[in-house]
Design goal:
The structure is a single chain. This protein is α/β, with parallel strands linked by helices. Helices cover 38% and strands 16% of the residues. It has helices at residues 20-29, 42-54, 77-85, 107-124, 136-146, 162-170, 190-193, 230-241, 245-260, and strands at 4-9, 32-37, 59-63, 90-99, 128-133, 153-155, 174-177, 202-204. An eight-stranded parallel β-sheet has the order 1-2-3-4-5-6-7-8. β1, α1 and β2 (32-37) form a beta-alpha-beta unit. α2 packs parallel to α3 (77-85). The longest helix is centred in the middle third of the chain and has 18 residues, at 107-124. The two termini are 14 Å apart.
């Protein structure tokens, strides 16, 4: 069994409240020993830190404001995120970025929240956990302005084109791959060029409870994704890049440890 790190687990989601411990137990039994709980707004980030304190052996946290929720940004957001980021369990700023697919928050609100979180990561020396959808050009132009000043960044749940991947790699960004790659309707294209990601820049994630791998058999009755399914994503990623699962497991774990400042399990 491979030891894995799930870099995006939305454990603050209400669907986990009835079976928190069992969810973590299933993850650990499948080899997923550490998970990053993602913060999506101030309240969510506070809860992510609380969960990481509650389950310190397995959980760490990110704190930030998702582009969908950028409209919630106010005069106190920056200072509160700065306070939360000082917690020893917090290992990145985010989920920060741009999402012009549905514009739940106006583009100008998203841009303000994104740039402020970029500035905060630069100030604090923390890596960035980032989201982009249908906003590549503006997203990458924004990152370029700050790239020399922040340490590391990962574009999580990458689903884009080969050219977009190359643009991120040119900026020395990391890439997070989810169960999207297991979806024959829309994720198949990733298998054609995923090999271009250097081993020390590739990480894997579930983005649970979202993005349940479509090719799971049998599928869970709840259709809720969990970290326990990360080995399934690992298997698909390893096949796509033509490398042994054990090698990819070790590489993604080491990369995640280095990125988030976690102790090695070697």
């Amino acid at each position: 069994m491979h030891r894995l790190i799930d870099i995006c687990f939305n454990f603050t989601h209400s669907s986990y409240r009835q079976d928190e411990i069992r969810t973590l137990q299933r993850a650990v039994l499948s080899g997923v020993t550490r998970m990053l709980v993602t913060g999506s707004d101030l309240e969510d980030s506070e809860f992510a830190v609380e969960l990481a304190e509650r389950y310190p052996e397995n959980l760490y946290a990110t704190v930030g404001v998702h582009p969908h929720l950028a409209r919630t940004w106010d005069a106190h957001t920056t200072s509160r995120l700065r306070e939360l980021a000082a917690h020893p369990k917090v290992r990145a700023i985010g989920e920060a970025g741009l999402d012009f697919n549905r514009n739940y928050s106006a583009p100008e609100q998203q841009q303000r929240a994104f740039e402020t979180q970029l500035e905060l990561a630069c100030e604090l020396g923390l890596p960035l956990f980032m989201h982009e959808r249908d906003a590549h050009q503006t997203f990458i132009e924004t990152i370029r302005r700050y790239r020399s000043d922040f340490s590391q960044g990962v574009v999580h749940c990458f689903t884009g084109t080969e050219a977009e991947l190359e643009a991120y790699l040119d900026l020395d960004l990391h890439i997070g791959i989810t169960g999207w790659i297991c979806d024959e309707r829309r994720g198949h294209h990733l298998k054609e060029f995923l090999h271009k990601v250097p081993p020390d820049r590739l990480m894997i994630e579930t983005d649970a409870p979202y993005l349940l791998p479509r090719d799971l058999d049998p599928k869970p009755s709840t259709r809720r994704n969990e970290p326990m399914y990360l080995p399934h994503i690992l298997k698909t990623v390893a096949a796509a890049i033509g490398r042994p699962e054990a090698e990819v497991a070790a590489a993604t774990r080491a990369t995640s440890e280095a990125f988030y400042g976690l102790e090695s399990e070697e």
